[in-house]
Amino acid sequence: MATIGADRSLAQVSIFSHNLPLVRRLEAVGFRAWPAASVQYDGSWQVRLTAGHPSNRLNSIVPLDPSDHRDVEIRLEKARRKFEAYGRAAVVRQTPLASPVLIELLRAQNWTRFDDTVVMTCDLAEAELPDTLDHLPTHDVGRFVDANLAVDRAPLRLKPALAEIISAIKPPSGLFMIENAADGPLATVLCVQDNDLAGIMSLSVSEARRREGLGTEILTSALRWARMRSARSAWLQVKLSNRPAIALYERLGFRDAYHYCYWQQEPR
């Protein structure tokens, strides 16, 4: 049974932080799987901004070296101003690669922590995938974006930005959908294969059709596709509050790799 809540809080980060090479690799493939429109570096900090889409993964300050805390207060203010120029509140992504000095500064400045998330991985060679109906990926980005927005009930104004993000993904990608003539789109998932790693992105199931096995069906289709293309491991990111999704992923063999969260400061 999955452990949720306080038992899986960010206090657990320390038990995963010893495997920093894995964290660095998964962060790097995550950046390629969900590319921001603008990426700038300040030392080892990556400042990611995307004007047309609200995703925190596309709009955050991402520290990539626990020992990089030189002039931390000055650099944080400089990054905050870049977000301000975009009309956004500054957001910091805390992974095991973030300096404790930076995190203490965020606390001292009354930044708010939110969206505790776990990154999970699965050995595809060992995974026993359920025998479900297979779905082939589409290459029609526009059709996939329409389906994803419909399933998520997201604003149509996000379509141009989402289409641009997906079109900018450089590694081979599989766009999977389940739909029927009567109900339209029911489930979507994006699988990005980066060499031997397969990233699972944007897994969504229509709210009215949950608990019917559609999530398992479309996810196993994506994992089989990745395994046939010689991917050896799969990874994904899921909020700790999403208990049904975590339970599904654990049934398929996914296990915790590391945790992260975001910190936000409201615009001045």
TrEMBL record:
EC top class named in words: transferase
CDD domains: NAT_SF
Residues making up the signal peptide according to the UniProt record: none
Keywords linked to the UniProt accession: Acyltransferase, Transferase
A molecular function GO annotation: acyltransferase activity
Cited SUPFAM superfamilies: Acyl-CoA N-acyltransferases (Nat)
Domain N-acetyltransferase: 131-268
EC number: 2.3.1.-
Residues annotated as transmembrane: none
Pfam families in UniProt: Rv0428c_C
PANTHER family: AMINOALKYLPHOSPHONATE N-ACETYLTRANSFERASE-RELATED-RELATED
Protein name: GNAT family N-acetyltransferase
Source organism per UniProt: Rhizobium indigoferae
